[in-house]
Amino acid sequence: MSFDATFQNKRFNSVGTRPLRPDGIDKVTGRARYGADFNMPGQLVARVLRSPHAHARIKGIDTSKAEAVKGVKAIVTAADMPDLTDGDEALFAILDNCMAREKAMYDGHAVAAVAAIDESSAKAALKLIKVDYEVLPHVVDVDAAMMADAPVLNDTIFTQGVEPAPSKPSNVANRSEFGHGDVDAGFAKADIIVERSYKTEQAHQGYIEPHACVASCNADGTADLWVCTQGHFVYRQNCADLLGLEASKLRVTSSEIGGGFGGKTHVWAEPVALALSRKAGRPVKLIMSREEVFRASGPTSATSIDVKIGATKDGKITAAEATLRYTSGPYPDMWAELGAMTAFAPYDLENVKTVGFEVVVNRPKVAAYRAPSAPMAAFAAESAVDELAKEIGMDPVDFRIANVAKEGTRSSYGPVYGPIGIGPTLDAAKAHPHMSAPLGPNQGRGMACGFWFNFGGQTCTDLNISADGTVTIAVGTVDVGGSRASLSLIVAEELGIEYSDVKAVIADTSTLGYNDMTDGSRGTFSTSMATISAARNAIEVMRQRAAIMWDIPLEHIYWEDGHAKAAGSKHGNRAPLSVKDIAAEAGNTGGPIAGHSELVADGAGVSFATHICDIEVDSETGSSRVVRYTVIQDAGKAVHPAYVEGQYQGGAAQGIGWALNEEYIYGDDGRLQNPGFLDYRIPVCSDLPMIDTQILEIPNPNHPYGVRGVGETSIVPPLAAIANAVSNAVGLRMSHIPLSPPRILAALNAAKT
Amino acid sequence: MRYERPQTIEDATALMAGAEANAFVLAGGTDLLVRMQSDAFEADLIVDIKAISGFDAITQTEDGFVIGAAVPSAALSEDAALVAAWPGVVEAANLIGSTQIQGRCTIVGNLCNASPAADSVPALVAADARAQIAGPAGTREVAIADVPTGPGKVSLSKGEIIEAVLLPKPEPRTADAYLRFIPRTEMDIAVVGAAVNLSLGDDGTISAARVALGAVAPKVLLVEEAAEALIGSNLDEAALEALAVACSNASNPIDDKRGTVEYRKEVAGVLARRAAQTAYARAGEN
């Protein structure tokens, strides 16, 4: 049955309330089971040997001494993970990243792995594996990697997207371009032009739970994987493809997740754990240490971005142009392309052009990080917009409002917008008390806008009604931010039952159809759509059961306020049947009652936010503190407002850390200097003010309740908002993220001389 | 790995003296237990000194204070007499790590870990504290500044254990202060640390001073020129500027993940100025 997802304006009973999350008590009491909390009989401990070199040819690996260590049951290298990728370059990159084949491409690249009966045996074996490396020249900086004399990482990479095709290999994997109009003509009409270059350093998602899994390859050709992931169906497919398993014979169960933010959308160690288990014939548990997480998983791109924007004196942007260079780690990807698409998305521009360059470097393979690539692009674009407003002498909010995109605007990346929330977030910012609050000494205020596409995708959901009338909903999208609470609210809303009568669970890959992973802010958007559909299918079944119970025609029964009701005067004296009434008779009326739904959730509805922040800078030490922060974002419809606010605050908190202190620091030897939370400085609680939020609800026309995803956009504006605030506080334009104390003090000193 | 929990200092030093290699003293464990997580770390013997009588006590004597080697930092701030006498030492000890860490960590551990960035060490050096060391050959006392010899290295001989830190009884109108710079608000390691201890004469001029810096050299620095800049002054702008210049000049830091050479030199001067102002105000109230 096709499902009509069109927005219907209705009054809600459950949706929009703030009950406690069903997974909350287990999490705060320590009973929740995360990736490392699952155990199997006879399980082995796995440890991974990693390259100490940024770039090195692997001439040989001798595991013989390690194999002789008592307790060691299996050692795998690339030789145990043959290339089954059949020309699929993206899949090959995953394979090569999981276990280095010909070359180690970055400090921390896996080269071998051991499974042993205990930690100390595994550790002893690691030390006895002898890898013969030929150390090669390396490059970690994005601009240096683009130079003609840079060491070339992969001589099969010839820049795509340029005419004529280059004859020499380089570290630039691809060039992409977006925009419309004629930027040269636009700049000719400008009274004032701002042109500036920006850099951002590499940040890690910083999830508190390290990657962890238990893998078991069984004698009958089946396999099980218990893993912390954002997408167990995707992990199943990746692992099956890499190991030559049939997808349906690999059962993947997702654990609770201690943060992912995009970093757990990619397999890292899971195929290795399966390969070890296959070789050892026993289950294998693999937990990455924090150091391994930093060196070999996660990070987002480091970037170098040039922006040029021109405007007339009365505040109309005539042209905007940006060149964006993003690192992707050692393998080609499309991170710069996403940056190029998002940079100017909030604006209605007649002439716009963005060009993205994907650059390979000797750093870990870049993974998605919450609105991947957009925060850096927004940092550069919104810094230039702010500077331009200042040059023109306009208020930064008014200048943005004068150029804002609206319904019908052709976006800078192509599509024409439907109803969107950027204008309303700017209007709300203008009216917000924060915007007019007085600033203290040494303080500056900044604001910035952000955009993210959002995604829908494939979703499959089961809803089962028990004989007592309570309901279980089984979904295949991992709950990363409270979606079990939101989906329970939606079931309660549709069926007219209590929130407490609904139990939402994340089903494993063998008990439900395929679901895309929880990324692209799609979890609640897409799964709520499937849940509404499943609930309505269940209602249809309940109408049929009511017809049997009452022995009246189906078309005389309608559903209202959680009850089957008989229509018209003929049956009007019948007491309505509740879900409980109908469920109690299910055994006599046709068996269990269920609703199922599978769909592709289209029309996710783009998302916009505006952030405001106040920063205080100590000009003698370069230290800065966020003293006030406000997030204004369009949610379409906030199903569970407290968890929507949590997403807004979480994105802002991560953005603040990235903007002020977080960065990958490499030594001259290409080794990561700060693979730990001591020197990779995510904010601690006392670093942050209470982050104020304002939820706007501009309904998404493509969702029955108007829902838009909210998980990612909140990290897009902070880099720019904070840079604008610091720049206003110190009276200098800061163009290099993070704005660490040494960087701010050096800029202040440079301005003095 | 062997774990021992001796009841007497004699047993403790004998255990340490008899160990073949990889023997470690455990008090709060906030450094040791973290190091034990590392693949490269190997321990054969751990000697827990928390059960030794008197090691958990702060004792006020005629000469000053004796702080046992197992006294957690948090306990320092609960000793009113110690806080009144040496507020800078107490505030330094209570900047280490976080509230939870301070419930376990000790200033002797901070000293013996021998990190150039240790927070309590510059404050102890400025306060002219001494370490009381027990060993197979008996006990001895040394200046705090002579305990660390470089990053991760101390001057203790095999079998020696620091029993206590000895703080002198402060002269009248004396006070100290400690400041450190970290990019975060807590859970961090000093990029620069500065401690100032000064005494005022009857006329309000500074009659004595000790200035110590952390995280700007392989080990804690006692900066004589900085003290000279303060002595005889009323902490006027010229004295403060001379103090800052002396501290910046004395600093010999490295570029690393926590800060640059230029940054550390400059901020050493800034923090010394601010610490001097705090110590001066405190001394005036004494």
Automatic annotation (TrEMBL), chain A:
Protein species of origin: Cognatiyoonia sediminum
Keywords associated with the record: Molybdenum, Oxidoreductase
Residues spanning the signal sequence: none
Top-level division of the source organism's lineage: Bacteria
GO terms for MF: iron ion binding; oxidoreductase activity
Keyword Oxidoreductase: yes
Name the record gives this protein: Xanthine dehydrogenase, molybdenum binding subunit apoprotein
Residues covered by the Aldehyde oxidase/xanthine dehydrogenase a/b hammerhead domain: 29-137
InterPro entries, alphabetized: Ald_Oxase/Xan_DH_a/b (IPR000674), Ald_Oxase/Xan_DH_a/b_sf (IPR036856), Ald_Oxase/xanthine_DH-like (IPR016208), AldOxase/xan_DH_MoCoBD1 (IPR008274), AldOxase/xan_DH_MoCoBD2 (IPR046867), AldOxase/xan_DH_Mopterin-bd_sf (IPR037165)
From TrEMBL, chain B:
Keyword Oxidoreductase attributed: yes
Domain FAD-binding PCMH-type: 1-172
Keywords, ordered alphabetically: FAD, Flavoprotein, Oxidoreductase
PROSITE patterns associated with the record: FAD_PCMH
Key word Transmembrane helix present: no
Molecular function terms from GO: FAD binding; oxidoreductase activity
Name used for this protein in its record: Carbon-monoxide dehydrogenase medium subunit
Native organism: Cognatiyoonia sediminum
